[in-house]
Specification:
The chain has 226 residues and is an all-alpha fold. The protein is 76% helix and 2% strand. It has a two-stranded antiparallel ribbon. Helix 4 runs antiparallel to helix 5, helix 4 packs across helix 9 and helix 5 packs across helix 9.
Length: 226
């Protein structure tokens, strides 16, 4: 198990090296590979652990490094379509099958962790439909937000509006950040630290929500005993 975890962590922390190798090995098929990873991360509720944020940054970085192989505008358009389609499929899946999926168990454990659902629900309680935009920048919540929107039967036109806006902000900001910053020597030579910074910044909203919830629950007045 630890060996598998180390392999996943290695892939995650060295995305620039792996993506560079993919470009050399598969050429234009790299577009399809990137499309599928973003689509699966946003569209398959069981796959919330894929490295969406850092992948977008690395894709922009590689587009700057290998412009003859990756056109940054084509990367942005394809990944934007993947992100929007992914969230839409996730929403529809939640709408029609959500309650059954939440109850699924594998080897005695819930397929979707209840704490992940609770974190996402707390975002909805605070931000409402805008959660669809904010969640784009928060790992795990990003994958579960459209799923819960479907379960809650959010009006599709409302969901789709926030879906497009959130997808645009997420894909464009991170891809072009990688494109313009990725080849600056201090960034390029410290990719692992940059990935860690992206991860830390992206999970700060979740951590803040947890701390605030814990703090507020500790301050709730106790019911007087009779």
């Amino acid at each position: 198990m630890m060996e598998i975890f180390d392999q996943i962590a290695g892939l995650f922390m060295h995305l620039d090296e792996h993506l560079g190798q993919i470009i050399q090995d598969y050429g234009t098929l790299t577009y399809l590979i990137l499309f599928m990873i973003i689509f699966v991360e946003t569209g398959v509720v069981f796959m919330p652990f894929l490295p969406g944020d850092s992948l977008l940054f690395a894709a922009g970085m590689m587009a700057a490094k290998y412009p003859e192989s990756l056109n940054v505008w084509l990367v942005v358009i394809l990944l934007l379509v993947a992100a929007i389609l992914g969230d839409t499929c996730n929403y529809l899946f939640g709408k029609f099958f959500g309650q059954k999926v939440i109850q699924l168990r594998f080897m005695g454990k819930a397929v979707i962790k209840t704490e992940h659902l609770a974190h996402t629900q707390s975002f909805y309680e605070k931000y409402g439909p805008a959660t669809i935009i904010i969640a784009r920048f928060v790992p795990i919540v990003r994958t579960l937000a459209p799923f819960l929107a479907g379960i809650a039967l959010m009006h599709f036109s409302t969901f789709f509006k926030f879906n497009i806006l959130g997808g645009f902000l997420w894909v464009v900001s991170l891809t072009f950040a990688g494109y313009f910053l990725g080849n600056i020597p201090v960034v390029r030579d410290n990719f692992e630290k940059v990935v860690l910074a992206i991860v830390i910044l992206s999970i700060l909203p979740v951590l803040w929500q947890l701390v605030k919830t814990k703090f507020m629950s500790g301050r709730l007045p106790k019911t007087a005993s009779h």
